[in-house]
Amino acid sequence: MQAVMNPKYPGLSVRVADEGFDAYVWGNDFSFEVSVYGAPELGRSVDQWAVEQVPAYRKCYGIDPEEFASYRDAADSAVFMAYLDDRAVGHIVVSTNWNGFAHVDELAVVVPARRHGVAKALLDVAQFWSRKKNLPGMMLETQNNNLGACRLYERCGYVLGGIDHLRYRGIDPQTSEVAIFWYRLFKSELERT
Questions:
Q1: How many domains does the chain have?
Q2: Model-level pTM?
Q3: What is the DSSP annotation of 16-52?
Q4: Which of 2-6, 21-25, 89-93, 94-98 has the lowest mean pLDDT?
């Protein structure tokens, strides 16, 4: 796949991950600050969710590039990297899920590159990949402590498809972290036109 340029951010491009992927992951900070937990509700926009203030802390998921090594050369998955002025600043891992949807296994943007259209550009490329494979849509998971990501998915046309209050209880029985499943359905777009 050729580099995809973003006219709103001229220095931003997305291309297939290369041999520099591992070093890029190990050398960057993908953490984010958590200060609220949202209470997701089906049928309500993210900005309408009740929120609970919590003492601020940094959240990091501990990205391991080895986890996705086999995704780079497989027919049913891909890894794309975003570059801002030729510096690697984000990545997305997408695969074909068991239910036929494209599954965004991971989406991350380095701290200083946020708010530059990087995550949206990566989602757009993953959507192009998914449509090219004639998949019915895309799905992904985030959590109620990452409302910025939830707002992004909502702006990009994703809808809330499910909420799992127990998913993370095995890790921490006292957690307030809730899994939120988002879907972008392509067929419904075609039916509206």
A1: 1
A2: 0.90
A3: E--TTHHHHHHTS---EEEEEEEE--TTS-GGGSEEE
A4: 2-6
